[in-house]
């Protein structure tokens, strides 16, 4: 007997399943508010070198002081990281006579002056993470995703060992603790450490929420539940734009995006442990209790306490035990058999490409003719129709084709924007928004697809491994922006190439449309 048969007996997609999915949407909303927080937490407003007061400046306006103290860019704006060695008073007579000799220039010696019209305070303005220290600013996002990477390994193993619900609760509690400590940071080092630990904790939420909900849903509604759950990521992305617009001081912004985790912790009380996991681990009585609860909520009155669900569950346990070569599995098990090895290598490459391109686009909110808040909001809005289209595509043309083409088209949109001239901001905005839609479609598909590729006994290990690879992509994505010092378009070309190559790898994966979830390794092989 398959576990899906039990789900059908109690109602595969009734009030019970909808209730679980709704509760699990609370932590889902909170995820992008941290994962995309770097756009506002570490935003760098326009700035220039601070000019020390001199007696010669007494009768000059601030604009004139800047004119003779700071060189201009070709577009007429003041440079951010250089100042003149000595005031160039001749520029008061003719400002177009900009010195071309670098020997009369130097790096900022007295700090920077920032434009606070858009951001009251960010970590960039707090610790002067600009110019030579620009790398540390971008590294803040990398530290967070390094934490998410480590958490993917830790929680992938722990949730298979100790259960989905217990580890989800642990990750939420740790997210609140480390999120609040981040808000209280008094140094860059403290912030880097606490953001890394926050990433570790939130990785558990990201990793467990989808499988926990999906393992209660029947095959016919598996795709629908995955897409509906992922829509709340988009709502969280839109909510982040609103919260960041209202809270422009970085300490309080961290508090504002961490607080909702408390609601998730409370609501988790009503979420049952995965019966699929309980049965796979021999905890038949607990699974029996949750299955009866689901049957009652779904109105299956033909079920009663004396229905021998325990007998069915024991038969499933015996079936799984018969299939298992050993009782314990680890990440090494993902590479021991040939078909599973191929799935693991290819899915890892796809996840890397999806995350690398998604976060590369999500952290580039300038250059499209919109302010950062509106860009963030529009990027969140476009994700919702992208998910709806994804739902149609994965059920019509299958998971494999959907995964491959959405990722390839993401890369092509990024590449097209490299060619479009900068003044064409409207056209660049449209291409970027379409590309963001494809990117989100690729992300939605890969979550659903991967959870269907691995057997139950290895599902969380598989999700942990692929999440680990994805977070490597997420950790590298913000650092790629530093390549613009080599060539202005090199970051976009890199994102484009990786997305197209990794999308092509998806063609090597098996199709899972309308296929029973595999329970043991033999089901895969």
UniProtKB/TrEMBL annotation:
Catalytic activity: prostaglandin E2(out) = prostaglandin E2(in); GMP(in) = GMP(out); 2'-deoxyguanosine(in) = 2'-deoxyguanosine(out); glutarate(in) = glutarate(out)
Highest taxon in the source lineage: Eukaryota
Keyword terms: Cell membrane, Ion transport, Membrane, Transmembrane, Transmembrane helix, Transport
Entry GO MF terms: organic anion transmembrane transporter activity; prostaglandin transmembrane transporter activity
GO biological process: monoatomic ion transport
Spans through the membrane: 139-159, 166-186, 192-212, 224-246, 252-271, 343-361, 373-394
Domain Major facilitator superfamily (MFS) profile: start-end pairs: 87-513
Localization in the cell: Apical cell membrane; Basolateral cell membrane
Membrane topology: Multi-pass membrane protein
InterPro entries given in the database record: MFS_dom, MFS_sugar_transport-like, MFS_trans_sf
Pfam family, any one: Sugar_tr
Record keyword Membrane present: yes
SUPFAM superfamilies found in the cross-reference section: MFS general substrate transporter
Family: Belongs to the major facilitator (TC 2.A.1) superfamily. Organic cation transporter (TC 2.A.1.19) family.
Protein name: Solute carrier family 22 member 7
Higher taxonomy: Eukaryota, Metazoa, Chordata, Craniata, Vertebrata
């Amino acid at each position: 007997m398959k576990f899906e048969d039990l789900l059908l007996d109690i109602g595969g997609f009734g009030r019970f399943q909808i209730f679980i999915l709704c509760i699990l949407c609370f932590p889902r909303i909170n995820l992008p508010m941290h994962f995309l927080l770097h756009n506002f937490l570490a935003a760098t407003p326009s700035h220039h070198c601070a000019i020390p007061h001199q007696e010669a400046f007494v009768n000059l306006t601030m604009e004139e002081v800047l004119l003779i103290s700071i060189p201009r860019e070709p577009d007429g704006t003041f440079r951010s990281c250089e100042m003149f060695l000595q005031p160039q008073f001749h520029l008061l007579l003719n400002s177009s006579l900009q010195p071309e000799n670098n020997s009369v220039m130097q790096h900022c010696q007295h700090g920077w002056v920032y434009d606070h019209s858009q951001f009251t305070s960010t970590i960039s303005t707090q610790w002067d993470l600009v110019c030579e220290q620009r790398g540390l600013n971008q590294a803040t996002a990398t530290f967070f995703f390094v934490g998410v990477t480590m958490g993917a390994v830790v929680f992938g193993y722990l949730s298979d060992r100790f259960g989905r619900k217990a580890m989800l609760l642990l990750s939420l509690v740790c997210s609140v603790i480390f999120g609040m400590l981040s808000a209280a940071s008094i140094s860059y080092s403290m912030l880097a450490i606490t953001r890394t630990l926050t990433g570790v904790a939130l990785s558990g939420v990201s990793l467990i929420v989808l499988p926990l909900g999906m393992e209660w849903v029947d095959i016919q509604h598996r795709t629908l539940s995955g897409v509906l759950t992922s829509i709340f990521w988009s709502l969280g992305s839109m909510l982040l734009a609103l919260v960041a617009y209202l809270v422009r001081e970085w300490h309080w912004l961290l508090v504002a995006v961490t607080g909702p985790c408390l609601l998730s912790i409370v609501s988790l009380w009503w979420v049952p442990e995965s019966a699929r996991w309980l049965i796979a681990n021999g905890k038949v009585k607990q699974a029996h209790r949750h299955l009866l609860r689901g049957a009652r909520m779904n109105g299956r009155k033909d079920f009663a306490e004396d229905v021998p669900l325990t007998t069915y569950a024991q038969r499933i346990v015996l079936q799984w035990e018969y299939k298992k070569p050993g009782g314990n599995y680890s990440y090494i098990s993902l590479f021991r058999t040939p078909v599973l090895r191929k799935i693991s290598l290819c899915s890892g490459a796809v996840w890397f490409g999806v995350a690398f391109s998604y976060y590369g686009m999500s952290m580039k909110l300038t250059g499209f003719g919109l302010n950062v808040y509106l860009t963030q909001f529009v990027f969140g809005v476009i994700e919702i129709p992208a998910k709806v289209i994804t739902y149609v595509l994965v059920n019509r043309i299958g998971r494999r084709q959907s995964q491959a083409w959405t990722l390839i088209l993401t890369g092509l949109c990024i590449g097209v924007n490299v060619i479009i001239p900068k003044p064409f901001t409207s056209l660049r905005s449209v291409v970027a928004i379409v590309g963001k839609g494809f990117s989100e479609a690729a992300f939605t598909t890969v979550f659903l697809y991967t959870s269907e590729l691995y057997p139950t006994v290895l599902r969380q290990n598989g999700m942990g491994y692929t999440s680990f690879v994805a977070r490597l992509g997420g950790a590298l994505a913000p650092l790629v922006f530093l390549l613009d010092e080599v060539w202005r378009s090199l970051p976009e070309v890199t994102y484009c190439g990786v997305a197209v190559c990794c999308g092509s790898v998806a063609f090597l994966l098996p199709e899972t449309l309308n296929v029973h979830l595999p329970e043991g390794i033999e089901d895969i092989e």
